[in-house]
Task: inverse folding
């Protein structure tokens, strides 16, 4: 399916364009990466011949090994993928100014970010629980699609065996690093540094805030900025996972 055929494409463009001026950092996951690269860089959709499904080994890039998003990461780690989308590292290097942070020989680019960390792209699924790939495999099998058994997922490559999680710790670490280094620490404590033109201020007419000392109000506002970033990022994730969700409601969440 081409981008123009996605029924909520205009709504998604509205969200992404709004985020440029109102959100500290946006996290794009899986299909949202394709959408983000199209909107921000004009890149065409690239599709693999065979679906990427399973848990793959990834390597952090030495030239970016000290990037905040990679703090605490091992040199090599496992992460799940489930997609036809293709993200060759050399293609992104030639067509964008993104920092490529993690790649895989089998899965291509896994983690990339703009230099100001305001846009972070994750092509895999660090948020998957232990049965998500299993449910997808059972679903596709039931549809007669004859899917390949997810790589490195079932013990002995046997779908009759309960799957084992091998990516949870790095998945949690990635989300934690993003919230800390790309959202919280990049949102100034003194919100006077933000202009009305580029960032949205929370209205200080909440009785709870007015009864608190100034520092409490500022802390509340700062948390509001962080929550706006979380809300937008998870809105994009919801678009990817459940396209029937009403996009109009995500901008007010």
Result:
């Amino acid at each position: 399916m081409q981008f123009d055929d996605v029924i909520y494409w205009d709504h998604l463009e509205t969200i992404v364009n709004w985020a440029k001026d109102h959100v500290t950092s946006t996290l794009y996951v899986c299909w949202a990466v394709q959408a983000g690269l199209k909107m921000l860089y004009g890149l065409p959709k690239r599709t693999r011949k065979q679906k990427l499904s399973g848990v793959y080994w990834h390597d952090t890039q030495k030239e970016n090994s000290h990037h905040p998003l990679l703090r605490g990461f091992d040199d090599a780690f496992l992460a799940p993928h489930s997609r036809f989308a293709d993200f060759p590292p050399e293609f992104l290097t030639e067509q964008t100014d993104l920092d490529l942070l993690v790649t895989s020989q089998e899965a291509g680019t896994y983690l990339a970010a703009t230099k100001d960390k305001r846009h972070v792209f994750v092509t895999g699924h660090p948020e998957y629980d232990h049965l998500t790939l299993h449910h997808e495999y059972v679903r596709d099998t039931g549809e007669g699609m004859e899917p390949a058994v997810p790589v490195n997922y079932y013990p002995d490559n046997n779908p009759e065996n309960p799957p084992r999680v091998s990516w949870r710790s790095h998945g949690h670490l990635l989300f934690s690093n993003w919230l800390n280094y790309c959202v919280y620490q990049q949102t100034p404590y003194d919100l006077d540094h933000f202009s009305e033109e580029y960032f949205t201020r929370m209205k200080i007419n909440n009785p709870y805030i007015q009864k608190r000392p100034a520092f409490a109000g500022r802390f509340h506002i700062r948390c509001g900025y962080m929550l706006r970033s979380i809300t937008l990022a998870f809105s994009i994730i919801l678009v990817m996972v459940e396209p029937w969700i009403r996009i109009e409601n995500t901008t007010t969440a």
